[in-house]
Structure formats: structure tokens, C-alpha cells
Specification:
Layout (H helix, E strand, L loop, with lengths): L1 H21 L6 E7 L6 E7 L5 E7 L8 E4 L6 E5 L8 E10 L3 E2 L4 E2 L3 E2 L7 E8 L2 E7 L21 E7 L6 E2 L8 E4 L6 E8 L4 E17 L3 E3 L3 E15 L4 E6 L5 E7 L6 E8 L5 E7 L4 E7 L2 E3 L2 E3 L2 E2 L3 E6 L1 E7 L4 E2 L4 E9 L4 E8 L4 E9 L3 E7 L4 E9 L2 E3 L2 E4 L1 E2 L3 E5 L1
Length: 428
């Protein structure tokens, strides 16, 4: 009999427990939300109920629901601050309230807050750095905000409250702030010298992201310039520009060398020491930082390759210049030979001709090869860049002559003299 009574008692207790778990408590009411304080680091949710234990969760509207659940014991205030880190950015959510415990589950219907969005900051882009003395002025663009699907929700903040924090990474150092956060799209960074890596940290009440990067680089330019060239002929100047830039990981930034295509290269020329430098040619770097620039040569001049400072969206590079090289210019033999060709009869009058550039009025020396050395034959005047000398072929054979033309000046520069190639004459 004792065993039967105990079994009946247990059945009564179990039945009572099941009825309590399935009963429905009053649903919480008047669910409101707002910012916990001016820092906007937490969302304060408040509600009304009959002093019951509560279960708080976040529901995604179209968005996935985050795994945030908070239980409050009976007797605790009907208010709770949910950190903003609990809300995934760029979604739409409601906060759900119910009566319930972690052991007994939910014992009321859900009450929900108004829907609100967690739109994150707009990513800044197209940042441009403009040097200004020792400082640099950085400007950037921000896309228009995404469509607000919950206009006027309780957590909306005034437009234009997104903050941009400028940071810079330099060699061997982590990122450091270089100015206060701003709601503007312009920042003056004081006393900054390349190479460095500039970045903007965009922040609003829901999230933080990076954008508006600028790689500020130094440049180093080398060039190869011929030491001797012919007047009026195009001369090729070759070289390379190497950049030093900063690459940043999470905790440290390091300097590394790089090259870039598309940098402007200007070849400058100087007629005499202390004189002005003028542009003689222009080109751009190719892959690997290499460049080739053709220049039209005149008199003897000094040359150097110059890469001007360049600033465009996302990059800044300093100016650099190669060493200075002197190229000596020599006269151009535009034509030389014998009138009527190089085959003549004995006792013919031979007319030897030479034409030079630049056009000069001077004197040329006709020389004869005696088998060992060149010997002078006769000088003849050069008029308007042309000289002709007549002589008589007295015996048959194979002979060699040449013109030796002295140097001159052109537009204040020196043009060195030269000799024609050997002019072979065949007499029969």
C-alpha cells in the first residue's frame, strides 16, 4: 500500500509541473529602445511586465538573427543595455522580449521593439594627397548613403555624424593617429615626410572599416647618357626609376622597393654651367620602372632625367633626378664624296665635296692617306655648310682622301670637329 501511495503522489506532482510549463504568462508590453548614452556604445531596451523573469534576444528581419540571448531574473529592472557589438552591421533587426528562464524556457508570447537598421559607415575612397610645404592636404570621397529601409527608427542619428580617423604607418612602426576624427572629407596632416602609408578609419555607431588609402613613396632615378653624339641626330637616353614605399601588416609597417609604370620622365638639358635647364624630351616609365626618351641633339650640353612629384588617387611619389651627364656634340657629315662618283679617268678634274650640319662658314682640310698616316693636301673654304675642292687625277690607281672639318659653335654651345669617312677614289 505504501508503494501505491508514493506512485500516486509522484504522478500528481509531475502532472502539476507539466501544467505550469505549458501555461502562458502575460506578454511583456511597451517595448522601447534608445541609445544608452551619448557614446552610442549600447542600445537600451525597456519594457513593462508583472515583475517576471525575462528572456531578451535579437531578431533579424530578412537578415540572419545573431546568437544573442540574455536572461534577467524576476525582480531585476525592466531595462537592459545591449552592446552595439552584438548587432551585425548592415542589417535590420528587432529586439524580442518574453517571460522565461534558461531552465524553464519561454512562458509567454514574444513582444518586439520597433524595427531598426544597423547601417555601417560608408567606405571612403579616392583619397588624394597634395603636398603643402612640410604638410600634406588629404581629401577623399564618400559614396552616398545606402537606402534607409527604416526611416525615422528610434536609433537613427543625424546625417553627417560618420567620423574619419586618419592614421599613418611608417617604417618600423605600427599605424598611428595623425589627427582628430573628423566628419569632413578633408584633413591637413602636419610634418609628414614620405615614405608612409595613409589610411582612414571610418566609424559610426555600428561598425568601423578602413578605406581611403594612399601610398606615399620616395623615388630614385638613374640614367645612361652617351658622352659623344652627332649634331642633329636623335639620341636615346635610358634609365630607371625605383620607388620606396611602406607596406603595413596589423602591427607593423616596413619599407620596401617597388617600381611603377606610367610615371612622367622629363629629360632636361643645360647649355652651360649655371644656365637654365630646359626640357629636351619627355616620356613615361614602363613596367619595371624603365624608361627610354629620345632627344634631338644640338651642341654639347649637360643632360639629366627628372621625375616630377606625382599625386593621384591612392598614390603620391616624390620628385627625383638622375646625375648630370655631359654629352659632347660633333659635326654631322651630311654628305661627302666625288662629283660624278668615285670612278674617273686619268687626267680628269676631280671635285671632292663635303656638306656639314650645322650650316657653318669655315674651312675644311682635304687629306690624303699615304699608307701610314693622313697628310694635309689643301684647305678649302666652307660656305653655308658646303665645301668643294678640285684637283687633277695624274695617274691611275686606288687612292683615299678625306675632309677634316674643324669645330664650331651653335646657339652658344660647342660643336666639335670631325672627319669624313675615307673617300676611296679609283682612277683608270
Amino acid at each position: 500500500m505504501v508503494r501505491v501511495r508514493l506512485a500516486l503522489a509522484s504522478a500528481v506532482v509531475l502532472s502539476a509541473g507539466v501544467l505550469t510549463a505549458c501555461s502562458s504568462d502575460p506578454t511583456p508590453s511597451a517595448v522601447t529602445i534608445g541609445w544608452a548614452d551619448n557614446t552610442r556604445q549600447a542600445v537600451q531596451v525597456s519594457w513593462k511586465d508583472s515583475n517576471a523573469p525575462n528572456r531578451i534576444s535579437i531578431e533579424g528581419i530578412v537578415s540572419s538573427s545573431p546568437s544573442y540571448i540574455k536572461y534577467l531574473a524576476a525582480g531585476e529592472p525592466n531595462s537592459w543595455a545591449i552592446p552595439t557589438s552584438a548587432f551585425p552591421p548592415d542589417g535590420n533587426y528587432k529586439i524580442a522580449l518574453a517571460v522565461g528562464t534558461s531552465q524553464g524556457g519561454i512562458t509567454s508570447k514574444l513582444a518586439r521593439s520597433p524595427m531598426f537598421d544597423t547601417d555601417g559607415p560608408q567606405r571612403p575612397s579616392d583619397a588624394v594627397a597634395t603636398p603643402s610645404g612640410k604638410d600634406v592636404v588629404v581629401t577623399w570621397k564618400v559614396p552616398p548613403p545606402a537606402q534607409d529601409f527604416t526611416p525615422g527608427d528610434p536609433l537613427d542619428v543625424p546625417k553627417g555624424s560618420q567620423v574619419y580617423q586618419p592614421v599613418i604607418g611608417s617604417n618600423g612602426q605600427p599605424f598611428r593617429a595623425v589627427g582628430a576624427g573628423t566628419t569632413s572629407t578633408r584633413q591637413v596632416v602636419k610634418n609628414v615626410k614620405p615614405p608612409y602609408f595613409f589610411q582612414l578609419r571610418a566609424k559610426n555607431e555600428w561598425a568601423s572599416l578602413t578605406g581611403g588609402e594612399i601610398s606615399a613613396r620616395t623615388s630614385y632615378t638613374t640614367a645612361a647618357v652617351p658622352t659623344l653624339w652627332t649634331f642633329g641626330h636623335q639620341m636615346m637616353i635610358r634609365g630607371r626609376t625605383v620607388l620606396q614605399e611602406i607596406s603595413c601588416a596589423e602591427s607593423r609597417c616596413l619599407a620596401q622597393q617597388n617600381t611603377a609604370a606610367g610615371l612622367t620622365v622629363v629629360v632636361l638639358a643645360q647649355n652651360k654651367a649655371g644656365g637654365p635647364w630646359v626640357q629636351a624630351g619627355r616620356g613615361t616609365t614602363q613596367p619595371g620602372g624603365h624608361f627610354e626618351v629620345r632627344v634631338n641633339t644640338v651642341g654639347s650640353r649637360s643632360y639629366r632625367a627628372y621625375v616630377p612629384a606625382a599625386s593621384r588617387a591612392g598614390s603620391l611619389s616624390t620628385e627625383s633626378s638622375s646625375k648630370t651627364y655631359l654629352t659632347r656634340s660633333r659635326l654631322q657629315i651630311q654628305g661627302a664624296g666625288y662629283s660624278g662618283g668615285n670612278l674617273h679617268n686619268r687626267n680628269d678634274v676631280i671635285n671632292a665635296v663635303v656638306v656639314v650640319r650645322p650650316v657653318v662658314n669655315s674651312a675644311a682640310m682635304l687629306q690624303f692617306w699615304n699608307g701610314k698616316t693622313w697628310g694635309n693636301v689643301k684647305a678649302t673654304p666652307i660656305r653655308n655648310g658646303r665645301a668643294t675642292l678640285a684637283f687633277k687625277a695624274t695617274k691611275p690607281g686606288l687612292f683615299a682622301y678625306r675632309f677634316l672639318v674643324p669645330g664650331t659653335s651653335y646657339l652658344g654651345t660647342t660643336v666639335y670637329g670631325t672627319a669624313t669617312p675615307s673617300l676611296v677614289l679609283r682612277v683608270r
